[in-house]
Amino acid sequence: METVAFSEDYLEGTVLLFFAGEDCGLCNGMRMKTERVLADRDLRLMEVDLAAVPQLRGTFGVFSFPTLLLLQDGRELVRTAGFFDFGPLEKTLDALGL
Questions:
Q1: Domains of the chain, start order
Q2: Do 46 and 3 form a contact (C-beta atoms < 8 A)?
Q3: What is the DSSP string of 47-66?
Q4: How far apart are CA 91 and CA 5, in angstroms?
Q5: CA 84 – CA 1 distance, rounded (Å)
Q6: Residue 52 contacts residue 5 (beta carbons within 8 Å)
Q7: Could you tell me the pTM of the whole model?
């Protein structure tokens, strides 16, 4: 998973943003599961460290972590937080051909 401080890259194409916090045990576990579940997908997966860019909490409405956001051209398609249910995310990715 690519870790980013922040860039406008999330506005282009389809990207999955993984919002995490420092010293978050659940974040570490869900990061590994996310990478494993999505390993065969043609998808940009970017980790956002909320400690480094706290302003993104408001920008994306992220109030807990971990949080996954699937964006297509900057538009939110799927949001999940905490212990992720990958079912809705995978159905959306299948529908998009990813």
A1: 2-96 (3.40.30.10)
A2: yes
A3: EEETTT-TTHHHHHT--SSS
A4: 29
A5: 17
A6: yes
A7: 0.83
Phi, psi at 64, each rounded to 5°: -145, 160
Edge-first strand listing for the sheet containing 75-81: 2-4, 44-49, 14-20, 67-72, 75-81
pLDDT, tens digit (0-9, with 9 covering 90-100), for 6-50: 566 667 888 889 998 878 888 888 888 888 888 888 888 888 888
Q: Tokens 């109030």, residue? A: 63
Integer CA distances (angstroms), 81 to 12, 13, 96, 97, in order: 23, 22, 21, 23
Place of tokens 């997908």: 41
